[in-house]
From TrEMBL:
Enzyme class: hydrolase
Upper taxonomic lineage: Bacteria, Bacillati, Actinomycetota, Actinomycetes, Pseudonocardiales
Keywords: Hydrolase
Name recorded for this polypeptide: Exodeoxyribonuclease-3
A Pfam short name: Exo_endo_phos
Species this chain originates from: Amycolatopsis lexingtonensis
Keyword Membrane included in the entry's annotation: no
Hydrolase among keywords: yes
EC numbers, comma separated: 3.1.11.2
UniProt-listed InterPro entries: Endo/exonu/phosph_ase_sf, Endo/exonuclease/phosphatase, ExoIII-like
GO MF: double-stranded DNA 3'-5' DNA exonuclease activity
Length: 271
């Protein structure tokens, strides 16, 4: 079976929404979920506790009050990647695991890059996080190939529509430096060079492709699919305001855990 990973921004869910998100995720078949915009509240803890109780590997760094971050849920045996410990600024927003495949280990990293507005404080915050990310990545770089997923809150050069003036040069540089500095390729673009897709939209005609998957060259060679899942933004109420992004690699995970359905004991509460 191929190695599959899904990333989804869950929007720091309250309990009711977290229950629906847990049910939706439990019906998915991916090996690893990279959840972004997690929080410290009861909704995020519900997801973490349900998956931990079901035998999954749960990587959920400490989230200071009101801070957002990432969580990784894996039905594969995994070890914690060192990048989280190397992150010196807003560390809850970067975490990873290492999983084993028939071609060797793979580092699966999750990132939730801070958003910003026109204020100097938010601009400084985002710039500082990006600088810390590069330092942490460089400090932990080795021969193990990386798959980086998450809500990067940046747009690729040439994004359609262009959204002129909304993003500073340092933000666009973060996207390009993932390739130029770290050797990570935009997996969606590798398979769909000209496709227009959006993972978040204030209006249907003003979409943004914020959620990304970037992979090291050895993984790009095994890339079978990379596609957005828009049903998460539909429905009344929607699960979240972001689309999911699913990646499939022609690698076989070698250490599956014995897991159960994280939502099995709770489905009756949904109806």
């Amino acid at each position: 079976m191929p190695l599959t990973v899904l990333t989804l921004n869950v929007g720091n869910p309250a309990l009711e929404r977290a229950r629906r998100q847990r049910y939706w995720l439990a019906r998915r078949t991916e090996d690893v979920f990279v959840l972004t915009e997690t929080g410290s509240g009861p909704g995020t803890h519900l997801i973490a506790d349900s998956y931990r109780d079901a035998g999954w590997s749960v990587t959920y760094p400490d989230h200071p009050d009101k801070e957002r971050g990432v969580m990784l849920l894996s039905r594969l045996e995994s070890t914690v990647d060192p990048i989280g410990a190397a992150m010196t600024y807003l560390p809850a927003r970067l975490a990873g695991i290492v999983v084993r495949t028939d071609r060797g280990p793979v580092r699966v990293l999750g990132a939730y890059v801070p958003s910003r507005d026109a204020t100097e404080a938010k601009t400084t915050r985002k710039r500082a996080w990006i600088d810390a990310f590069h330092q942490a990545y460089d400090a932990t770089a080795d021969d193990v190939p990386v798959l980086l997923l998450g809500d990067l809150n940046v747009l690729e050069p040439g994004h359609v529509p262009p959204h002129p003036g909304q993003f500073a040069p340092f933000e666009t540089a973060f996207y390009t430096e993932l390739t130029q500095r770290h050797g990570l390729t935009d997996a969606f673009r590798a398979l769909h060079p000209t496709a227009v897709e959006h993972s978040w939209a204030r209006r249907a005609d003003l979409g943004y492709r914020y959620d990304h998957a970037h992979a090291a060259t050895p993984l790009i060679e095994h890339l079978a699919s990379c596609s957005y899942l828009h049903d998460t933004r539909h429905g009344d109420p929607a699960l979240t305001d972001h689309s999911g992004l699913a990646v499939e690699l022609t690698l076989t995970a070698t250490t599956p855990l014995i897991t159960s359905d994280p939502a099995a004991d709770h489905e009756a509460t949904l109806f």
